[in-house]
Design goal:
Blueprint lengths: L2 E3 L10 H7 L6 H14 L8 H7 L4 E7 L2 E7 L6 E2 L2 E2 L1 H22 L9 H14 L11 E5 L6 H16 L3 E4 L8 H12 L7 E5 L1 H4 L10 E4 L3 H11 L2 E4 L4 H14 L11 E5 L4 H14 L2 H4 L3 E4 L2 H22 L23 H5 L9 H20 L1 H10 L2 E4 L2 H16 L14 E4 L1
Parallel strand pairs: 6-7, 6-10, 7-8, 8-9, 10-11, 11-12, 13-14
Antiparallel strand pairs: 1-3, 2-3, 4-5
Length: 451
């Protein structure tokens, strides 16, 4: 469908230079980035989790900025019909479109081209993440800690999805706001449940934060509950945004992307500088997910050891206990930050090693070159393991990753035999449990584990 839409309350005015950066005669790379992210937002609820397929299905889709005397408009052509009701674009999707425009312009002009932000240093990357979140108005200094980050797969069973809603409901009853990767499945369920809990408690101005990045948004389009969306430049800054903003993290069953998130956070928590820093981390699911978390726990034990296992709790089939433990953990976080003078809205004290910030390009060469051995500190091994799973995600759902697999074949993952054996078992379990792609789609592995 074709339409013209007007911003509501923000981005009503753009300079000629800003428009020119997005829209030049050759439709440059920044425009292509905006187009692909905008298409992903418009494709909300389609049941599609393949970035390459999305772009090919809507080859005729176009979007451009129209400057008028009273401000700007976005003109879309050949957009997915599911984004409209009776010919009018759904309000939430419209807001998400302008959030994408806001973030892409800000990142290009104020982060990537800003001489005062050095993305080659840990401090510079953290500063960039802070500025992007602040520009999106996600940092709320007057709110006591209450933001729970929920991780988990986009491809989960109906029973697991219902469980995520129950956990979200009990978190909502306790006044917790929710932050997820913004997509379907375990990213949507906690928000939906929390919305009911908030309604029962008559809590106004509830926050349902969606945090994404250009490579993944096509596979995980923002779900309808998200009322604040932010796009980070890459997966590493997206992950940092989660752990800097969140006061506790709950992990539901998922696939390679969820394993990547777990390893990212465990690697950070294993850094010696973070030894005393409280960070509630709970793995949970229904009774049917007990074996899933046993496999995750065993993989962590084999690769990272007992210290890593001590950083989380596993709670099976008890949404109320999950909410209670989150609430108790956040009280500890609040007391620690108050004692040490750290902000409630952004965890400045958390030490994030450069290995967790440097963008990883999942090429075939880089995947083969990962240092997957135990002759290194546990937190650095976690960083390399995280990259391995990040590559699998790219090969599964990201446009560039899918095209690389089509051209060069499987990613090859190699390392210590014990680690490779554990990784092979874990990835194989994700395939057998249909956690790599949405239900109904045959999964062809994009990787080969070399033992």
């Amino acid at each position: 469908m074709d339409a013209q839409i007007t911003p509501d309350g923000h981005l009503e005015v753009l300079s000629k230079a800003e428009v020119a950066r997005l829209w030049d005669t050759s439709h440059g790379s920044l425009y292509q980035l905006f187009r692909s992210c905008a298409l992903a937002v418009l494709n909300c609820g389609s049941g599609l989790d393949d970035g390459k397929e999305l772009l090919e299905r809507y080859k005729s889709f176009d979007i451009r900025i129209v400057q008028r005397e009273r401000g700007i408009k976005l003109e879309v052509k050949a957009a997915p019909a599911s984004a409209f009701v009776d010919g009018v674009m759904i309000k939430g999707i419209q807001e998400h479109l302008f959030a994408v425009l806001r973030d892409i312009l800000f990142i290009d002009g104020e982060i990537l081209k800003n001489a005062h932000i050095n993305l080659d240093t840990t401090e510079g990357v953290t500063d960039a993440v802070f500025h992007i979140l602040r520009n999106a108005n996600l940092l709320k200094p007057q709110i006591s800690p209450n933001l729970v980050v929920c991780w988990g797969g986009h491809s989960i069973s109906g029973h697991e999805y219902d469980y995520t809603k129950l956990v979200g409901y009990h978190l909502g009853l306790r006044g917790m706001d929710i932050c997820t990767g913004c997509g379907p499945g375990a990213m949507k369920g906690p928000m939906k449940g929390a919305a009911v809990g908030h309604a029962k408690q008559r809590i106004e101005n509830s926050r349902y934060l969606g945090v994404s990045e250009p490579g993944i948004i096509a596979a995980e389009a923002p779900n309808p509950i998200v009322n604040d969306l932010v796009i980070l430049p890459d997966i590493e800054k997206r992950l940092e945004a989660f752990v800097r903003m969140g006061h506790a993290i709950v992990v539901f069953p998922g696939g390679a992307g969820t394993a990547e998130e777990i390893l990212y956070l465990l690697g950070i928590l294993l850094h010696p500088d973070n030894a005393q820093l409280p960070f509630p981390l709970i793995f949970t699911g229904p009774a049917s997910a007990a074996d899933y978390f046993k496999q995750i726990d065993q993989f962590i034990a084999t690769t990272l050891g007992s210290e890593a296992q001590s950083k989380y709790q596993i709670i099976i089939d008890d949404p109320v206990e999950v909410a209670r433990q989150v609430q108790a953990g956040i009280k500890t976080v609040r007391a620690y930050r108050k004692e040490h003078g750290d902000a409630y809205y952004f965890n400045w004290l958390l030490k994030i090693d450069r290995e967790f910030q440097h963008p990883f390009a999942p090429t075939h060469e880089n995947m083969r070159g990962l240092a997957l051995h135990k002759n290194q500190p546990a937190h650095l091994l976690a960083a390399h393991l995280r990259r391995a799973f990040s590559g699998v995600v790219a090969g599964n759902v990201k446009d560039q990753g899918i095209r690389a697999i089509e051209q060069f074949g499987h990613f090859e993952i190699c390392g210590d035999p014990e680690i490779m054996h554990a990784m092979d078992i874990l990835l194989d379990s994700f395939v057998k449990q249909s956690r790599m792609k949405l239900p109904g789609k045959a999964y062809i592995p994009c990787y080969k584990v070399i033992r």
